[in-house]
Each structure stands twice: as C-alpha cells, then as structure tokens.
Design brief:
Helix content: over 70%
Radius of gyration: 26 Å
Oligomer: single chain
Low-confidence stretches: 41-45
Order of helices and strands: HEEHHHHHEHHHH
Strand order of the largest sheet: 1-2-3
Structural class: mainly alpha
Mean pLDDT: 77
Number of helices: 10
Distance between the termini: 80 Å
Strand content: under 5%
Number of domains: 2
Length: 249
C-alpha cells in the first residue's frame, strides 16, 4: 500500500500479477507441447518406422520449470480481502484528512470487494465447478496412458488415417495392464452407471478425438504428439503415391 500509493493502484497491481502468472504458465505449457512434438524418426531394416523421444534435456528442463512454477498469485478470497483492507485504510486516511468524498469512494470499493469475498454461489455455479473437478483424476490417468503408448507407437502402412490411429492407440492401451485399468476406470466414470450401445473402443476413440480436435483441448502434449503422428501418416501416404507413380511409369 505504501509502495504503490493508493488502494486503486494496489488492486490494479494484484490483477496484473495474476495475469502475468497465468501467461507464464500458459507459455510454458505451449513450450512443453512443442518439445513433445519434436520426435526423431528411425527406420528399421524391415521397412517399419517408429518414433522415439528426442531432445531429452530440453524436455526435462521444461518439465522442471513447469513443476516449479506454481500459481504465485491466486484470484482467491485472500487476494480480495487484501484489497478490502487497502481501501479501508485509504478511506480512514481520507476521513482523517477531512475528505468525505474520497472516503465515500473508497468505502464503496471496499464494500464491493467485500461482497465478492462473501458472495454465495448460485446452484448452477456450484454444480458447474463440481462438474469440472469431477473425473479429473480418472481423465489425467488416461491421458498419461495415451501419451505413453503414443511415444513409442510404430507407424505402419496399415495406419491410414486418424480413425485407424485412434484404434491402434486403444489396442496398445488394452495390451498394457496398468493402462487398461486406467481406461476401464475412466470409462466407468464417464458412463456413470448407464448402459451404452457403443463399444469401449468407440467411446475411447470419440474421447481422444475431442481431446485433440475439440474447442477445448485439455492436454497440449497429447494434441501435439497426436498431430505429429498424423503428419507421419500423411508423409507415408505421399511416399506411397510417389512409389506408385514411379512403378507405373
């Protein structure tokens, strides 16, 4: 308060700190996604091509930075209370200096932020927040399984498009006991006890499709790695076309 001069400047600085911190986290997440997308292609003598992780040091450094970057300033009740106190102090000082207009302005702002602090949530707001948190643990476990199998996935000629690729990822997850358990747990949570005419494979395929092409992509690394595999599929298709043209000429 003494450093910035008044409560309005203090409230502005708090908001700027929150924005800067959120931007730093978003930038690191994007760098991590790009690092995951950098993969080396290694060709075997049998004609198969598979992917291995490259730039281990870069990825490890970014992961460490992201893990150490916590939310330094949260838009929480404590932040709002600090702003309330700042406005109350300024209102008191204005009153002592016989400046009733300034004191009234500060008390109005103080009342506003105090209302934010103690305002009750509407029922739909509480349900929406609970819905976002529900299933997060199960979804994160499945995302880790997807990342693990994609990082060593062999790109063969039989994988012709994204739908086949999602099916291959499903098969690899099912072949791994721990990953299969993560998928089963997530699927049970998603169904919520209801029956479905779709197979587990189809439900998984649709979930992964939404993760990588939907408006809200919750896992940037999953998206980046999936897109990289798709580019490899396109490259294989182009190579096949060139070979066919040469054979026919």
């Amino acid at each position: 308060m003494e450093e910035v001069g008044n409560a309005t400047a203090y409230a502005h600085r708090k908001r700027q700190d929150i924005i800067k911190n959120a931007q730093a986290i978003a930038e690191l997440d994007m760098k991590l996604a790009k690092a995951w997308a950098k993969m080396e292609l290694i060709s075997e003598t049998d004609g198969k091509t598979y992917l291995v992780r490259a730039n281990h040091d870069e990825l490890r450094v970014l992961q460490h930075k992201r893990a150490s970057l916590k939310t330094a300033v949260k838009g929480s009740i404590d932040d709002a209370l600090e702003i309330v106190i700042a406005y109350w102090i300024e209102a008191r000082n204005a009153h002592n200096n016989i400046d009733p207009l300034r004191a009234l302005h500060c008390l109005i702002e103080c009342h506003f932020f105090l209302g934010i602090t103690y305002s009750p949530k509407f029922d739909y707001e509480a349900k929406s927040e609970a819905g976002k948190k529900s299933g997060r643990k199960e979804r994160d476990a499945l995302a880790r399984a997807v990342l693990d199998v994609m990082s060593t996935l062999e790109i063969s000629k039989t994988i012709r498009d994204q739908e086949v690729l999602r099916g291959k990822i499903f098969d690899l997850i099912q072949a791994h006991p721990e990953h299969a358990g993560a998928l089963r747990t997530y699927d049970e949570w998603a169904l919520k006890g209801k029956s479905s005419d779709e197979s587990t494979a189809d439900r998984f395929s649709e979930t992964l499709r939404k993760w990588v092409v939907g408006k809200k992509q919750p896992y940037p690394r999953v998206t980046a790695l999936f897109e990289h595999l798709c580019r490899q599929i396109d490259a294989n298709a182009s190579t096949k076309k060139i070979s066919s043209r040469k054979a026919s000429s």
